[in-house]
Amino acid sequence: MTPDKTDAILFETVYRVVKQSVPLLEGRGSTLSESVRAVDRALDILLCFSQEKPVLSLTEIADEVGISKSTVHRLLATLECKRFLIRDSATGKYHLGYRFLEMASQVFEDVNQQWALPYLRRLADECGETVDLAVLDDDHVIYLQVVESQQRVKLAVAVGQRLPAFCTATGKAFLAFLPANRVQMILGSDLTRYTENTHTELADLDKDLQETRKRGFAISEHEYEKDVNAVAAPILAADGYPLAAIAIVGPSFRLPRERMLVLGPIIQKVVVSITREVGLTALSTMVPRNGSWQ
């Protein structure tokens, strides 16, 4: 597992925990307030790094977080000392350190989605394609388990990888069953057009989500990546909230729309088996709702 596939979960989880703690800590003295502010700024620095911007200079970081270079330099030195960042001696630029790998492994160990593997493997054997399990994290989905296809030509995300929710079958399986206000928050910002098939108009997405709710599973055709199709169904809590989603993904020549319409109900049967055999109460404990990831 590479750092850029796991760091986003850690950044956002730790960042929000500290953010929620700030109101409780403020007001207990100027020294403590300064300490909290330093932690907040350090987390802002870490959140500058992403898959799109994996390497940054001191100036770029200072511009991004909006604080002075001297302050940024002190915080960078601390983060480097604690192995959260690594400074390239040749370029002077920074990238994420190996401490995140250690922390990421603990995050995934704590989530512990091993319960899903037998079901995913049986589904992968039945359909002959890659099968994965994911949860929602803000406006993205995070893949927790992946069972790769045995086909010579195959497609698979990495465990811990994050993809946008609005243009993936897995993400749309969540969006179709989320409360309307939550969907509006997710779709409120500008939507990136990844391919010619990406829906960037809210009217088109709303129609797609309505169709998804009606049939009970979502379909994605070349929407995030060209020549890649997927079909996904949600695992719903007792109150109808989507806890997780199971998807089948493969090259479009093996997964045309007609076949995905056949595979969708098969995924739904697997979901029924999971809810019956694992139990909704146990699932709600093992799979935190999106709020628990925030």
Folded structure, characterized:
The chain has 294 residues and is of the alpha+beta class. The two termini are 22 Å apart. It has 2 domains: 3-104, Winged helix-like DNA-binding domain superfamily/Winged helix DNA-binding domain (Arc Repressor Mutant, subunit A); 112-293, 2-Layer Sandwich (Beta-Lactamase), CATH 3.30.450.40. It contains 12 helices and 8 strands. It has helices spanning 3-25, 30-46, 58-65, 69-81, 99-111, 117-127, 169-175, 180-186, 202-215, 257-277, 280-286, 290-293, and strands at residues 85-87, 94-96, 130-137, 140-147, 162-164, 218-221, 228-236, 242-251. Strand 7 and strand 8 form a beta hairpin. The strands form 2 sheets. A 6-stranded antiparallel beta sheet has the order 5-4-3-8-7-6, with helices on both faces. It has a two-stranded antiparallel sheet with strand order 1-2. Helix 3 packs across helix 4 and helix 6 (117-127) runs antiparallel to helix 10 (257-277). The model is unreliable at 1-30 (pLDDT under 50).
